[in-house]
Amino acid sequence: xIRTMITVFYDGKxxxxxxxxxxxxxxxxxxxxxxxxxxxxxxxxxxxxxxLAEGLKSLHAKDANGRLHKGVDSFILIWKQLKxxxxxxxxxxxxxxxxxxxxxxxTFANWKxxxxxxxxxxxxxxxxS
Length: 129
Fold this sequence. Notes:
This protein has seven helices and four strands. By secondary structure, it is α+β, with helices and mostly antiparallel strands. It has a four-stranded mixed β-sheet with strand order 2-1-3-4. α1 (15-27) links the parallel β1 (6-10) and β2 (33-37). α4 packs antiparallel against α5 (86-93). It is globular and about 45 Å long.
């Protein structure tokens, strides 16, 4: 398998998000991922044209070719690099399953975003600027 650098922009203040990324970090092969907690610094995310609020709402990842992925597409990109998770990436990529996963993820992401204080603060700051 070809080794590539994938930058993952995640919400380190979301307990579920942080726990999931911690697990991926633990099982990921070395040298493939660069993990960016956007709650510590959103500069790299903003360089990609994505606001902090948008980054907190959905997982974002940039592949080795510089292409941005959002939500379920970010997970598929990550899973393709992880042993045992590649099957889930393939299954999730199937048309009907992809549509269901995408809808489910967006629903969850919006729910999470609306309930976490740091997300709402980022949204307010964005609206006030």
